[in-house]
Amino acid sequence: EVSLYTPPLNRFVMVQALLELPSSGAVIPSFSVRTAKLIRYHSAQDFSMLGLEVALLLLLFMDAIDKYLFFRNFDVSLRQSHWDLYDLFLYLLVFFIVVFRAVAVAKFAALSFDPSVRIYYNFAGAMYWYDVGEGFLALFAWFLWFRSFKFLNELSWARVILQTLLRAAGPLVGLSLSGFLLLLAFAHVGLLAFGTEIHDLRTFGVALSSCFRFIFGGMRYEEFRAAGPLLGPIFYVSFKVWMVLIMVRFFVAVLLDSYREVMQDRKDRWRFSFPPAEALASDLVAWIRGQKIKTDVNVDANDKHHFHGVKDSMLEDLAQQVDRRKREISEMDAREMYEELQGRIGKMQKHMDSKISNIEKMFVTTVAPLVETLDILVRQQTENAALEHVRKTME
Length: 395
Known about the structure:
This protein has 395 residues and is mostly helical. It has helices at 44-73, 82-110, 124-146, 149-152, 156-167, 169-194, 204-214, 221-227, 231-266, 275-297, 312-331, 334-353, 358-364, 367-394, and strands spanning 2-6, 11-20, 28-36. The protein has a 3-stranded antiparallel beta sheet with strand order 1-2-3, covered by helices on one side. Helix 1 runs antiparallel to helix 2 and helix 2 runs antiparallel to helix 3. The termini are far apart. Mean pLDDT is 79; it is low at 304-311 and 357-364.
């Protein structure tokens, strides 16, 4: 075991070489090279990172307190919000990272390291907890980036991807279990048949990882044929047929089928959208409409051509007809207006029944709530008209 410290890089390096002498004979060599930044804050850049880490911890602490107060004050169950459960998982990861880093710092401080003193320091314990903390930090980074899907869910195209994965989750889990069993079978067969001939199949763990890699390429036919003139080609062809031609295509088929179902459900509900572009487009349309209104206001109101050839007498007749219709509506009670609306809707339904299909009839049934709403509005209008008539009579 050799331990080194590089002050310019602020890195500790520990090289371990191991020779195992099993009872069966021979020698099994192994080695490992591990690096760690045990003196975490050494330069100005390191102390700036310390400030960012403290700021991040404060933000996470404030967010956790805010969520706790919200759920306590409004009596909301945490199980009702999946993303809040996800945030709780992130808080636990941050807690473990802080604990493991503190343990690594404590282990290193117990060594009383002095670069000027050339003695043996056992950095194994400190490096172990440092590696564990870095592993949890990498896991936290992965889940933190995955949390961006919460905000991508506001975009229609990202929502399609998420809904496709959620709909295909059940079949994909079953298919993954079946594929994993086949992978175990091929790894076991490859170890027994070619473990002494092919380096990628020398142990069961290496064979399992190699078989997974063979799905995406790197499987050489000549190597298997040289290892076994009969079993090699059979293993190669069987693996390609079951794992590549069948299992991989099953995965793709399940995803495509779920995507087609999601698109079929969304076809008549909402279109693809991108909020930033929509906001920009709405602002542009509002500006164009504003310019058009300003142009219309600047038109000369005395210009007779503005009325498109309509005579003043025709405008007076139209105004009289509108007034007459208003008086008829005000004198009509709520029941008569309701019957008139029912008659018009009945005529519309008879006309639509001869034109639309059975699927479209389901949409026509939504007129009933509209009739009830109109009934309420008509009653309110009739009452207002009666009150106005009484007021005018008293005057």
